[in-house]
Design brief:
single chain, Ribosomal Protein S5, domain 2, Alpha-Beta Plaits, 2 domains, six-stranded mixed sheet, four-stranded antiparallel sheet, 10 strands, 34% helix, globular
């Protein structure tokens, strides 16, 4: 049996670390996972064949949880391959996208078409078990599965609000090369920022993305030591709708009308950081058919 699954990266509007509630929106940086299950593995439990270059705790946990859900009686040999466009550990939700793509590949191999929330909750569980996310990042997982802004209570596993992205908006990404640490390592640092986090969440629930991103990035910059204020002010003066640190950084994400994206790209710092223009996700990435 063969199955494929696709998910996308995302940018942060409100980081969930300080409150447990987060908001994100998917962007067109994709992950594709392919699984091949051979019916009779060598043991009494599934055997995982994962190339060394993609073997991580979140990959292993996603496979284990997905097999328990979609192949509970199987002792198959499972071969996994992955292709990702998302820079890892830069705040663009690579772990959530990899996890959800794997889960969708397994569900498609089983001939199942689970709702996004089921896949997102499984991904959140895998992320917590793997130690890559303190909250499970349900907002990130769902943003990579469906188009638009999504606000979630990550502690309760609930969707609080969904809203479409304006059709003429796109995103400029400024991606320095430094990786961020795992979010569980920063739980204590963010715990004192709950009041500021709640203000950002309230703005996100109201659909005020500019305010939500501004308040969130001020919080994250204080906590992580980033200094994007001057860059953000410059981008806003030249037409940015919103700008802020995505996830735990170091990526700076800027939302603006599509016609302004090229000019805003040119106004980013002239250094060796990666600079990209990407569309928002407009359709559900989804999974492939079983074979």
């Amino acid at each position: 049996m063969i199955g494929t699954g696709r998910a996308s990266g995302a940018i942060t509007v409100s980081n969930a670390l300080s409150t447990g509630i987060g908001c994100a929106a998917g962007i067109e940086l994709r992950v594709e996972a392919r699984v091949e299950l051979t019916a009779d593995g060598p043991g009494t439990t599934p055997t995982l064949e994962i190339p060394d270059g993609i073997r991580t705790p979140v990959v292993e946990e996603s496979l284990h949880l997905g097999l328990l859900r979609y192949f509970p009686e199987s002792h198959a040999l499972v071969r996994l391959s992955l292709r990702s466009e998302i820079p890892a550990a830069r705040g663009l939700k690579s772990s959530s996208a990899v996890s959800t793509a794997i889960l969708l590949a397994l569900s498609s191999a089983a001939g199942r078409h689970p709702p996004s929330l089921e896949v997102g909750l499984l991904s959140a569980d895998a992320s917590r078990r793997a130690g890559v996310s303190a909250t499970g990042a349900l907002d990130d997982a769902l943003a990579g599965l469906e188009a638009g802004f999504v606000v979630t209570d990550n502690l309760r596993g609930e969707v609080l609000r969904r809203m479409p992205v304006e059709p003429d908006w796109g995103v400029v990404l400024y991606i320095p090369s430094k990786n961020h640490p795992p979010s569980p390592n920063l739980r204590a640092a963010f715990s004192g920022e709950r009041s500021a986090g709640e203000l950002s969440v309230r703005a996100a629930l109201d659909g005020d993305w500019s305010k939500a991103m501004r308040l969130n990035t001020e919080l994250v910059e204080r906590t992580m030591g980033y200094s994007y204020g001057e860059v953000r002010d410059r981008l806003q003066r030249h037409g940015a709708v919103a700008s802020g640190v995505s996830g735990l950084g170091p990526t700076l994400a800027t939302i603006a009308p599509v016609g302004l994206l090229g000019d805003l790209l040119d106004r980013l710092p002239s250094d060796d950081a990666q600079k990209l223009i990407v569309p928002f996700t407009r359709s559900t990435p989804g999974g492939g058919a079983a074979s």
